[in-house]
Amino acid sequence: MADKCILIVDDTEINRGILKEIFAKEYEVLEAENGRRALELIATKKDTLAAVLLDIVMPEMDGFRLLEELSKHKIPDKIPILMITADTSTDAERKSYEKGATDVIHKPFDAFVVSHRVKRAVELYESKTQLEQKVMEQTRVLKKQFMVLKKQEERLRETNTRIIDTICTIVEFRNLESGYHLKRIKGFVQILANTAMRNYPEYGLTPHKIEVITTASAMHDIGKITVPDAILLKPGRLTSDEFDIMKSHTTRGCEIVKMLADLQDKEYLEVSYDICRHHHEKYDGKGYPDGLKGEEISIASQLTSLADVYDALVSDRVYKSAFSPAKAYEMIKNGESGIFSTKMLACFDIARPEMEAMVARTKAEEEANLAAGGAGQLSQ
């Protein structure tokens, strides 16, 4: 270990000489007669120091004061500091350890004991340093692998989202609705959810949860793919039996969500399932399929329900023409399209200008697209 050195800090030359003899064959030995000189040597030699042997009783700056100064710069974390003292009391040892010493060596010296203790301390610190380096290297490797996996996960999520949106868009086309319906539903849900997050923290909404709910809201009507055209596209009023079949799109949609489980993570799957099943529940318990009431209905389903009703009112359907946004607002506030919670209606009030702007914008886009001969298909 010729490239490593040991610093002996002791105001007594004889003590320094004895210790030097013990380590001269293995290390370059540096000597300091007081704490201030030791600080100078440590500052210039800290990268090559294997250990510091530090006498407690010295003029100018004693061992404890020097140890305190070294601890400010975290030197004892990198280099073992062994205190030298003739004081065999427990208080002296305790004070040494409290201030950051690695070990305590008592005078008079026993060459074998001193050599063994220093060797053990040096090996311990070298092992610690090597372990820290390995941990740092492994951490770098793991971070790199994590970033690769994260990018793969993001690409997979994007692909899955496109697949789900494509399936949902096919359902909307079959229902004679353009892809703008899904764009508006997701936009309305996001606007309402952000409003609820700002005003009603009790819902526990976060940007991440809002992202999941917004994406999952596209799945709300996927069960309509199982409804016969004669019922789905009927321009007149549905019979009781026909309405029962129409209502089944909620539960049938849940079955489809389960079949798509491999394309979704657990959180997204659960929210999609909930929205499919419960987006027609009403706050007064008069919805379907489960007759949920009040806050039994999740915030995800409440948001999607309001967004779906609003878009249905402001859009043309086979059974009606579009209402103006102002009329749609009035109908929802008056309970003509089912009962919503006072909190949802308050969010609707706040979000109304933004939602109406989105209606105007998407309808203008749709008209321009149709005028240009486009099919109205959107990439969601």
Descriptive account of the structure:
The chain is built from 14 helices and 5 strands. By secondary structure, it is α/β, with parallel strands linked by helices. It has 2 domains: about 5-110, Response regulator (Rossmann fold); about 150-370, Hypothetical protein af1432 (Orthogonal Bundle), CATH 1.10.3210.10. A 5-stranded parallel beta sheet has the order 2-1-3-4-5, sandwiched between helices. Helix 1 (about 15-25) links the parallel strand 1 and strand 2 (about 30). The protein starts with a strand and ends in a 9-residue tail after the last helix. The model is unreliable at about 375-380 (pLDDT under 50).
Summarize the structure.
The chain contains 14 helices and 5 strands. The protein has helices at residues 13-23, 35-45, 63-72, 90-98, 111-174, 180-199, 207-216, 229-232, 240-247, 249-259, 266-278, 299-314, 325-333, 342-371, and strands at 5-9, 28-32, 49-55, 81-85, 103-106.
